[in-house]
Amino acid sequence: MKTTELPRWASAFVLPVLNLLSALLVAALVIHLLGESPTESLRILIDSAVINPEGLSYTLFYASTFIFTGLSVSIAMKAGLFNIGSEGQMYVGGLGLTVVMLTLDHSLPAWLLIPAAMLGSAVFGAAWAWLPGYLQAKRGSHVVVTTIMFNFIAASLMNFIIVKYLIPEGQQNPASRVFSDAGAMPRLNEWFPVLGDTPLNVSFLIAIAALVIYGVMVWRSSWGYQLRATGLNQSAAHYAGVSISRMIIVAMLISGALAGLAAVNSVMGSTHYLSLNFPAGAGFIGIAIALMGRQHPVGIFLSSVLFGALIQGGFDLSLEKPNIPQETFIFIQGLIILFCGAMENLYAPAVLKLLNIRKG
């Protein structure tokens, strides 16, 4: 009997790998057209982003932020929502973190200050996601439209707040004052000196814990079952007793809180102050990570590391190969989004045919 649907292992693993290889193949063609060797470029990228301990540390540092934005998009997707607003929610989450820091960083010890700042980032991120969730649940306003709008509003609002209120007197840099030492996330090179002088910090461990909690809550709890049921079929979920409007709002609140927590790694783990445009597109990369990782914890982790490696390895590669500008890696990220998002089922018919031939 012929199979009409791909097994879970094929859709969750085989298709993403084929899509990724397709994106890399097109990228290799572009690098060849730029006059450089794709194999040598790949070797340099892997060496600087994975094999070199200091480079790996930077890769994991970037991945720490991407894990949170990927989780933010994924939890909304599980409810059938496409939250494109993680960028703005991360931005506003950074403001919540900064408000706590500027208020309490000279009066609280680190063991109280850091959790309080993380709570501030989560609360502000959730608050920024609440209204799009409410409008979707109660008024039918599509969450894609509202979250896109809220990204622009967040950018303008943060520009006003930072320039108007947070710049210390007498300074021109559009940023808040530097936080006290108590507000710095402990760095992992304190325990693992081989990592070198890099900003990789405890946020990476918190991100791993968030992946585990996400996996347990989504696939091993009754609430997760209701969440997935809402995303798959709202009518059936409503018939089973799930409050659809409440689930949508709660999913968006959690999604916003996770996006807000993405600011912790960038602000408390690296710069130690709030600056303009610090998200630097991490919220949008989270969309690619959620799509490529198929909203699974392992997939989200691997996708985050991949994008972190592209940023770290791409920077070093552009230094060694002047013919390959850094913008090339933005193009590669776009290719990955194209193949893993818009064309995610490109190879599904061929894989299904191969499986049926093997069965026959």
UniProtKB/TrEMBL annotation:
Q: Provide the species name.
A: Massilia rubra
Where does this protein reside within or beyond the cell?
Cell membrane
Q: Where are the transmembrane segments?
A: 12-35, 55-76, 88-104, 110-131, 143-167, 200-219, 239-264, 270-291, 298-315, 330-352
What is this entry's stated membrane topology? Answer: Multi-pass membrane protein
Highest rank taxon of the organism: Bacteria
The UniProt entry, under InterPro entries, shows: ABC_BtuC-like, ABC_transp_permease
Respond yes or no to whether keyword Transmembrane helix is given for this record. yes
- Major subcellular site: membrane
Keyword set includes Transmembrane helix: yes
Q: What is the lineage of its organism?
A: Bacteria, Pseudomonadati, Pseudomonadota, Betaproteobacteria, Burkholderiales
Q: Which UniProt keywords apply?
A: Cell membrane, Membrane, Transmembrane, Transmembrane helix
Write the protein's name: ABC transporter permease
PANTHER family, sorted: ABC TRANSPORTER, PERMEASE PROTEIN (PTHR47089), GUANOSINE ABC TRANSPORTER PERMEASE PROTEIN NUPP (PTHR47089:SF1)
Do you know which Pfam families this protein is assigned to?
BPD_transp_2 (PF02653)
